Amino acid sequence: MNDRDRLLELLIERSLEIRPVTLSSGRKSDYYIDCKRVTLSPEGAYLTAKLMLEQIHPQVSAIGGLTLGADPIVSSISVLSHLQGRGLAALIVRKEPKKHGTMSYVEGPALEKGSKVAVVEDVVTSGASLLRAIDRIAAAGYEPVQALTILDREEGGREVIEERGFSLQALYDRSDLGLDKKKAE
């Protein structure tokens, strides 16, 4: 089994729940996928980092994303990039600014202004979280150049992100989860 197939197997086995749920976007869905159940496991963290790192442009010097879904992804990509001699810095984007000290939205090592950043998310539904991270990374003086996710739920987020000039790169989309097959069973 290749790495992509193995990560998908882990996501379906450990993260996917077929049940009615209200998503963070406020939308209703007939399934929920909690990628952190996989991205916080050793094998899942490694596979996610490996597959995403393969897609990150050579000119990128940092990886960032909105806390909490992106945190394990950002950290594992940064560590793996070091092992591969690439050294991508990790940036964590807060939902609210820090209440003391720098009062910053973006945490991580200081980078040169204009540094190119790949922005990641675990799941894209409406695209709002990914775009919030992109905006905050840009406001910090860096240049977001890529948008990546583990799963595109195919509920309009890709189109919203593309309207902002970014091409969403997803490891998987809704059809990869086999939901239509599961419903038929």
Task: Write a structural description.
By secondary structure, the chain is an alpha/beta fold. It has a single domain (3-184), classed as 3-Layer(aba) Sandwich (Rossmann fold), CATH 3.40.50.2020. 36% of the residues lie in helices and 27% in strands. It has 7 helices and 8 strands. It has helices spanning 3-15, 36-39, 42-53, 71-83, 128-139, 157-163, 179-184; strands at 16-22, 28-33, 62-66, 89-93, 106-107, 116-124, 143-152, 168-173. A 6-stranded mixed beta sheet has the order 5-4-3-6-7-8, sandwiched between helices. A two-stranded antiparallel ribbon has the order 1-2. Strand 7 (143-152), helix 6 and strand 8 (168-173) form a beta-alpha-beta unit. The longest helix has 13 residues, at 3-15. The protein is globular and about 50 Å long. 39% of the residues are buried.
Question: Tags for this entry?
Answer:
two-stranded antiparallel sheet, OPRT, 8 strands, Rossmann fold, alpha/beta, 185 residues, Or_phspho_trans_dom
What is the gist of this entry?
The protein has helices at residues 3-15, 36-39, 42-53, 71-83, 128-139, 157-163, 179-184; strands at 16-22, 28-33, 62-66, 89-93, 106-107, 116-124, 143-152, 168-173.
- Kindly, what is the distance between the CA atoms of the first and last residues, rounded to a whole number of angstroms? 25 Å
- Report the β-strand fraction as a percent range: 25-35%
Shape: globular
Mean pLDDT: 95
Tell me what the CATH architecture is. Answer: 3-Layer(aba) Sandwich
CATH fold naming: Rossmann fold
- Low-confidence runs of at least 5 consecutive residues: none
What topology, given as strand order, has the largest sheet?
5-4-3-6-7-8
Report the strand count: 8
Task: State the domain count.
Answer: 1
Order of helices and strands: HEEHHEHEEEHEHEH
Gyration radius over CA: 16 Å
CATH class: Alpha Beta
